[in-house]
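REQUEST FORM: STRUCTURE PREDICTION
Request ID: SP-0412
Submitted by: Lab K.M.
Chain count: 1
Length (residues): 239
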Amino acid sequence: MSDWVDKAARKGEQVEIDDYGTADGPVRWTLPASARTVVGRHDPHGEETTGILATLGAIDPATLPSATMVLQVKIDESVPDVSEFVRNAAAVIDPSMRVVALNSTERDGRYASIQTALKVGGTAVLLLMAASMLVQQLEQLRERRRLLSVLVAFGTRRSTLGWSVLWQTAIPVGVGLVVAVAGGLALGWGLSWMTAKPVSDWWLFLPMAGAGASVILLVTLLSLPVLWRLMRPDGLRTE
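STATUS: Completed
RESULT:
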């Protein structure tokens, strides 16, 4: 028996082991004087197992009207459909028997599909944003064609103008990513607090954040050829 039960049940004395009992009243059983006190252990659910631990030779389960049976089976997950074999065997014993699978990590296929769809949708939105930003960037460069040529004529480095294009793209996208990540983490923390469930991975946003950074580089690289062409001296010509 576990250590805390020893405070209520005494060795060599009777103990009430079935609250429902029979027509004659609750079922009582004399706890053997030779019973040992052991430390309770945690079960696979993480709960501490307590109570009186007795074998079938010590007490007949048939004398307990409300007795239930809990069986834990360790299976070889390399066998195809091994879980279904266990469920079929349980149905043969008792069709009303409930079978619960205990896994350290179990991912529902539907939620995995939703997660994949969200990633694909987010990536598609980022690509649309990149296309829109690229078109806007190219229009701005063409409008500033004469100004760019003047800057180059006065000795402005081409690399400086290239960095300016990068910052024009990086600042709005970077601010948007920071706000999105902060809002998402706050929302996730709030949901985990309300459901009292721990978060297994706080870094799931990194792929999308990396995609946002890739958008910055993509728009900048595609804008550079047009920028070099517009910085030629012929941009100073007027008619």
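NOTES: Residues 158-195 form the longest helix (38 residues).
Reviewed by: T.R.
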